[in-house]
Amino acid sequence: MSLPALKNDRLIRALLRQPTDTTPVWIMRQAGRYLPEYRETRKQAGSFLDLCMNKELACEVTLQPLRRFNLDAAILFSDILTIPDAMGLGLYFAEGEGPKFERPLRSAAEIKKIGVPDPSEKLRYVTDAVNLVRRELDGQVPLIGFSGSPWTLSTYMVEGGGSKEYQYIKGMMYADPGVLHHLLDTLAQSVIAYLNAQIEAGAQAVMIFDTWGGVLSPQMYGEFSLAYMHQIVDGLKREHEGQIIPVTLFTKGGGAWLEAIAETGCNAVGLDWTIGIDEARQRVGEQVALQGNLDPCVLYADADTIRAQVSNIITRFGNHPGHVFNLGHGIHQHVDPDNLAVLVDAVHEFGHDIRN
Amino acid sequence: MSLPALKNDRLIRALLRQPTDTTPVWIMRQAGRYLPEYRETRKQAGSFLDLCMNKELACEVTLQPLRRFNLDAAILFSDILTIPDAMGLGLYFAEGEGPKFERPLRSAAEIKKIGVPDPSEKLRYVTDAVNLVRRELDGQVPLIGFSGSPWTLSTYMVEGGGSKEYQYIKGMMYADPGVLHHLLDTLAQSVIAYLNAQIEAGAQAVMIFDTWGGVLSPQMYGEFSLAYMHQIVDGLKREHEGQIIPVTLFTKGGGAWLEAIAETGCNAVGLDWTIGIDEARQRVGEQVALQGNLDPCVLYADADTIRAQVSNIITRFGNHPGHVFNLGHGIHQHVDPDNLAVLVDAVHEFGHDIRN
Predict the structure, then answer these.
(1) Measured between alpha carbons, how far is A300 from A334 in angstroms, rounded to an integer?
(2) What is the pLDDT of residues B26-39, one digit of tens each?
(3) Is cis: bond before A293, omega within 30 of 0?
(4) How many angstroms separate the CA atoms of A198 and A214, rounded?
(5) Is the pTM of this model over 0.90?
(6) B167 shares contact with chain A (CB less than 8 Å)
(7) Strand B143-148 to strand B74-75: parallel, antiparallel, or no bridges (unpaired)?
(8) What is the spatial distance between Cα B166 and Cα B156, in angstroms, rounded to a whole number?
(9) How far is Cα of residue A347 from the mean position of the Cα atoms in its chain?
(10) Which are the contacts of A128, defined by CB distance < 8 A and separation ≥ 6?
(11) Among candidates B97, B207, B95, B67, which has minimal Cα distance to B163?
(12) Which of A134, A271, B160, B297 could disulfide-pair with A292, CB 3.0 to 4.6 Å?
């Protein structure tokens, strides 16, 4: 069955560094806890995982922010840890503690047992949700699919949850690198299959979140994180039903490595707020689009300050193609949703102004 | 009473970019939980704060790592949050949760009440410990004094403890910057008085830890963190009893801003492990010494890997004056102390080799 064609294609055009009438904007975690309607649906669903796995409810929360804000993209509501869960590690969310795995991987034997999950089986709930969202969107804006990066997924899988010191995975990285490479290669193959399945189900752009690449040294980043994102970029369907599918890579804390990230052949690079977007554009702006890069904490300020900070980023990027406005990390749960409305409208206003 | 003169001056010479026979090495948190003798003394003391405030026991744990390892410096055993505690915020350590304040600062009125603590009163326990350590060291190696940076101290004071999102302090930074500037100026004056008192008590070098500067955007880093470290560098006694007192600034995650940090007039810049020391030396190595920059997780590996990683950093720095070897952050509590011995000896061996 053919899916609805796109009416607002600002996001796709900007990711491909084509001219747009104004700067497109979407927000990492735009479907999330800062919205009262999300908290309501979450209550209905039961647990966070129940919400991810129920395609109707996942679709509903994906669409909620689009009803409030003039956003230029939807992003599938899901979790980055769906792949390790499908691998049998037993994902759960301890109240107030973030994600955990019942069976973390600490030995070569455990890692060797892990296989590539077939996305049409244990991850079917994700592609079903993608397909439903895509039909419900009816072409209003494009739908972004996503995955965690192999390195980022592996940190949770080896540590057993979030980490501050990365004792186990970095211990493995320095003491037994071949075992970690085996895990990362399995994950890269899994991410390729998973994202290609999302593309076939209707995702019109994909993004890879390398949330923890920034905890590595430059050499280790190249060897243990970027190399596997490169493998994924090479393995993705870059075109589907006549449309190019842009790929965005985002390494939080990766500002020093933009050139190397751009060299993978991705279409766009995500920026956190610790690098000036003017500097980033000078370094790689002829090669890739840039997505970012407002400090999420700006949304705790008043409307005038939010507008000034939005204007600052748009002015620094300048009148060039290839900017997708976003925060430098996910929106915080305690932000007032009205402040996000101020941000979104300011992006379109200043994005329009700078083109004229 | 005159204090013992220095026998091993490698650290001071390297910080001043003077030639040395080999590369000096010390380790952030070298007096700490990874050492069984530390854990023993800590038990005797009672709480962590009791240990900091007991000059004999603080002196004992400061000296413990020097009995095991061929280190080129001692660093006072203390906490970065002594200043806010002396300001009356009520520092305490919740088991397994890190530092907390009973009375965090959330309003302009609370911030306006804060004054500069006289180091000869409520911080007397620190200068007494400095003086005792200096005498006990008997010139074996130099003693480093330290403080947290104003920005880093303020994050704990406003958030009430450690933070992931910095909601309150960044909210203040964007919504009410004048109030935060008032707090940071008070802290800068306090740090100047505190470090000058440590220098008068016998500290032979000082270091400022800006542990959380890296969570800021480039502009906000300049305005809210670096400006106040600059104020401190300008206000410190840079010479005492005929000896130059080198100043080291360390912003974790500050690799992008090395030029600006070096411009403050400090003698040395600390590096975490996310930047190559060869790149750092090319950028600022003619202006300042560099301290760092091994990933602390290398100490989870075997001796051969540790030696190879040490050699890598010394080779990248090359045969130039101005390198103090260190980890890129504090040593982790679960590291085997024998692995640190391997590291220290490897630094001296390879540091000697590269000079010949």
Answers:
(1) 8
(2) 999 999 999 999 99
(3) yes
(4) 27
(5) yes
(6) yes
(7) parallel
(8) 9
(9) 20
(10) A55, A201
(11) B97
(12) A271
